[in-house]
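Quick check before the chapter quiz. The format below is the same one you will see on the exam, so make sure you can read both the input and the output lines.
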Amino acid sequence: MKLVLVAIHIEPSPRALPLGPSMLASVLRRAFGGAIQTRVVDAFVAEPAAICAARILASDPEAVGFSMYVWNRGLALEIAACLKAARPDIIIFAGGAEATADTSGVLADPSMDFVLPGEGEELIVAAMQRLLQGDPPQALADWAQSSPVKDLTNLPSPYLDGTLRPEDYGGALWELSRGCPFTCDFCFEARGTAGTRRIPLARVEAELELFEARGIREVFVLDPTFNYHKVQAKQVLRLIAEKTHRAHFFFEVRSEFLDQEMAALFAAVHCTLQIGLQSAHDNVLRNISRSFDPEDFEAKILLLHEAGVPYGFDLIYGLPGDSLEGFRQSLDFAMRLVPNHLDVFRLSVLPGTRLAETAAGLGLTYEAHHPYRVTALPTFSALDLEQAGHIARGCDVLYNRGRAVPWFGMLLEPLELAPAEVFEAFADWLDAHPGAEPIEGQRSFFQSLFEAQGDSLLGALAADVIACFGHSSALLEGPGGDTVAPGPRIPFHHDPRVLMARLEAGTTQLEELAFSIPPMPCEAAFALSKGELVLHLF
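Here is the expected output.
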């Protein structure tokens, strides 16, 4: 039998790696040898369905399986329709979180023959055995039931057996455990399973050695709460420090399980942490089976800050019981802790979650199809949700994509504005200045804020601070190599060489810089020479 397993990714990136289908391909190879010839095909949501279908049909498959998630369900079903139109005899099935959460809805599509819900390794072996024995696809639709893999020890690693070559993708998705100990109402992760099951440490060590040997630069850890089991998390961090030197690791953690030793272990490896804050209001979080202690959260984040560990937060707007003003307060709370990035999302009421079951009682209305976003709730009107999204856009463009972490607090202090106010004003500014160049846009916006308060001198200095940080970081973090020719001339109000020297010496207050650096209008071009930043003054 020829089988194609399809992974549909959001966009090309080191994260766009078909780990799930490759794990299934590994178990099928071990179970059936050459009796089932399995090929994994990558696709992207921006690609036309017909193009994806042609890529799949090039392997002349007898069966095609889709790894279906909330973001690719529509395209997966479009591709399935193309496949059935071209080859009515082809067997088409789906697995993954979306197919598991809405099995009946997926099966209602005329192109879909059956669904394999839940964890797929054991289920797909049994399903393929039945197909090889001649069972019709309809029989599998009636038979397949979700059942977690109880013992992860026996699962093969697609990295170690050669099924999946991470160097072909520029990164690796890394599974260390399955299951989630928490039952957040908006999440599907823990439904149908209890507790967590862990990948054996010997396999973890072998995969680490492979990542290092293959020169993998980015590793995305899939555990929803990496540090829940503190002892095992610390074991893995020690292994990473011992076995790898080049890769940057991305972890999702919970603040309540952080301690000083763990912060030091994170600091000893190249990593970034993502922490699900969601809201800074305990009464809001209790509506989704979470809780929040702001003092404990701040204390745990301080451990990371003092250790020099980069961290970011997630925020969700539109949660039951929240409001636009409550969201603004949560955003301001998060920004006081100086995250390296802040990801803000509108609440989605995903199929199969407890929130989908309780939405009517909570007064939530939401989209019937992907992305299932909440459209209104009693305390958060549709207009307020749009305004929260407006603020979120301002945050993303100004703070995240604008690399504003080093200077944002320095500029806000003399302005005496809350972060949410600034993000909202910047989103308005973006609407009035479409297509503005990022760094120059930031300079112009902040200069206008200071001028509105009657302080054009600080506004000019703020614009220069943004230019120094923005252009230097773009060079130092960019792909251009150790030597880069001078870029365009940048207008400055002050000598950028003196300004950068003061900043590098640790000056963090804009007023202090204003007293120590006299105005000197000039132009400067930034360059790199053997990895060192060079300024050319004109």
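If your answer matched, good. The first strand starts at residue 2 and ends at 9.
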